[in-house]
């Protein structure tokens, strides 16, 4: 029996900061906790979006792939979708969209997800090329990203909102990925000018945090030496 009130998170964004980029959960395992989600592959191998149980990866070249069950990830969110329509929007800017959602849902102190399908203007997205051991830090690895632009594109934005108090475990505010309807464009959203479409909303009352306790590097790392918050904000927003 699935529980749509639970957000499952494997790893933390904090562990990416010093370059703890080993894949510590398989896609098969992740899909047991949800049919919807986002994440990244081992070595920051692209940007992941799970839609309707299908795991899509936008790799560092911009190609969209369906990944196998044995694909591994250092960080991911997933949940079982039970979205409700929140509103329709027309040519609304990203800042206005986010502020409207925040004011409408009144859920600043809990986790929730958005699924927006529509037409996006001037979408800018990115994906990082896979790195190998010895891994560099998140800031260094993120420099090896490719940025993709589209003037007008139909697709799905999938976003998770995390409360300020969880900044570091996740990124406070919205963390959003995108996948085009034709599966020819995707990635971590950097910006878009406006969107026309339907906004769906799903709130969670529980967070299931799963940590990679079998990973020696994670268990022995001293996070007090890392500039976690600033590095996450620089790389993820």
From TrEMBL:
Please indicate which superkingdom the organism of origin belongs to.
Bacteria
- Pathway terms, separated by semicolons: Polyol metabolism; (R,R)-butane-2,3-diol biosynthesis; (R,R)-butane-2,3-diol from pyruvate: step 2/3
- Reactions catalysed, as given in the entry: (2S)-2-acetolactate + H(+) = (R)-acetoin + CO2
Q: Keywords in UniProt for this one? A: Acetoin biosynthesis, Decarboxylase, Lyase
Q: Which InterPro entries match?
A: Acetolactate_a_deCO2ase
Protein EC: 4.1.1.5
Lyase among keywords: yes
Q: Which GO terms describe its molecular function?
A: acetolactate decarboxylase activity
User: From its record, what is one biological process in GO terms?
Assistant: acetoin biosynthetic process
| Principal EC category | lyase
| Cell inner membrane found in the keyword field | no
Q: Which family does it belong to?
A: Belongs to the alpha-acetolactate decarboxylase family.
Q: What is this protein called?
A: Alpha-acetolactate decarboxylase
């Amino acid at each position: 029996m699935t529980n749509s009130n639970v957000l499952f998170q494997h790893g933390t964004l904090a562990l990416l900061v010093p370059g703890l980029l080993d894949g510590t959960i398989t896609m098969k395992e992740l899909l047991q906790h949800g049919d919807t989600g986002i994440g990244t592959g081992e070595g920051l191998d692209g940007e992941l979006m799970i839609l309707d149980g299908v795991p899509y990866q936008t790799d560092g070249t911009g190609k969209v792939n369906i990944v196998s069950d044995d694909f591994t990830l250092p960080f991911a969110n997933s949940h079982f979708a039970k979205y409700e329509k929140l509103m329709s929007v027309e040519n609304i800017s990203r800042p206005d969209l986010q502020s409207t959602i925040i004011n409408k849902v009144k859920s600043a102190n809990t986790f929730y997800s958005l699924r927006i399908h529509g037409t996006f203007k001037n979408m800018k997205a990115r994906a990082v090329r896979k790195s190998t051991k010895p891994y560099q830090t998140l800031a260094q690895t993120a420099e090896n990203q490719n940025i993709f632009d589209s003037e007008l594109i139909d697709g799905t934005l999938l976003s998770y909102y995390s409360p300020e108090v969880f900044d570091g475990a996740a990124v406070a505010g919205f963390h959003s990925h995108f996948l085009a309807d034709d599966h020819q464009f995707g990635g971590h959203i950097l910006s878009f000018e406006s969107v026309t479409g339907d906004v769906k909303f799903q709130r969670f009352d529980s967070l299931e945090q799963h940590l990679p306790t079998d990973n020696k590097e994670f268990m022995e790392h001293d996070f007090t030496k890392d500039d976690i918050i600033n590095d996450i904000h620089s790389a993820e927003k």
